[in-house]
Design a protein that fits this description.
Layout (H helix, E strand, L loop, with lengths): L1 E4 L14 H9 L3 E5 L10 H6 L3 E3 L2 H7 L2 E3 L17 E4 L7 H9 L3 E4 L14 H18 L21 E5 L3 H13 L2 E6 L2 H10 L5 E4 L2 H9 L3 E4 L14 H6 L5 E4 L20 E4 L2 E4 L9 H22 L1 H7 L1 H4 L2 E4 L2 E2 L2 H7 L6 H5 L1
Parallel strand pairs: 1-2, 1-4, 2-3, 4-5, 5-6, 7-8, 7-10, 8-9, 10-11, 11-13
Antiparallel strand pairs: 6-14, 12-13, 14-15
Amino acid sequence: MIVGVPKEIKISENRVGMTEAGVRQLVSLGHTVLVEDNAGLGSHITNEEYIESGAQIVKTKAEVYKQAEMIIKVKEPLPDEYPLLRQDQVLYTYLHLAAEPELAKVLVDKKVKAVAYETIEDKSGGLPLLMPMSAVAGRMATQVGAFYLQKDKGGKGILLGGVSGVRPGKVAIIGAGVVGTNAAKMALGLGADVTVVDINHSRLEYLDEIFHGRLRTLDSNINNIEEAVTQSDLVVGAVLVAGRKAPKLVTKAMIDKMSKGSVVVDVAVDQGGCIETCKPTSHTNPTFEVSGVTHYCVPNMPGVVSRTSTYALTNLTLNYAVKIANHGLEEALIQDHYLQKGLNTYGGHVCYEPVAQDLGYEYVPFSELKA
């Protein structure tokens, strides 16, 4: 199979869809890998390293899309890339289609075979390809929040960990999944006073156990969310419903009650955000203010720690890329039921039920299309 790795064009997106080690693996199995010129520089991977691993360097993005049977990316295609997509081309990347109706329409109209990293499941029902970037984003959320709490950045002038004789900052984390757990780990490491809210009581018990009671856990309801949010200096939105828009759990009324100079970081913004006042921003213009509260809502947070993120991502995406390249998408889907969960569009149909429901498409599972 001819595999294409284009350069990412999202603002400040420095990750790349394939490392040189991934290229070497695919080439060793008899596949051709086309890498757009300088696609890896943001992750400190040079053209020469790709060439040494067996890749062919292609000068233009258009040529990569024209030749490749499978496109491997990090982020969803942007409007400039829509015309480059072809019928029956396999697109393997993060898509988050519930929050991208225009892209969903393009993929359906062009009959692209789109496989989304974020909806592939494992045997336990987890989301293995989302996990590494969720871990990065969760850790970054606390780091970013601490930065914007500085007075020179418009914050309260609070040090999250405090010092002897001064109380630490308060952090509320809405969601106890991978993002929330990593945000809590970083916040506790800094010495903050941490509260985690989640609907899954078993997950809260797990956090109580692994953190030895060092944080406060609350069941998710309106009263508990409001209490946690309005009393905190930093709020981290970390809610995920696989493939769907995130529910708006933190309302504007709650944000209005937060003290001036507080900070909100909504990691769920790539799925629409779980905080009502949030809207997507970028690394070049990452924040805005609502009711005196700084909002940081960058959808591709891991893009600025690109080398770590690229290698962490390829470690997990490569296995499925190899399956698709070796067997073709259809046979790979038949062989791997969990990979089927990643199929979002195929042959002009939406094949992932939550996306179909959120965007108003008919849901057609792959099993029906195969039949």
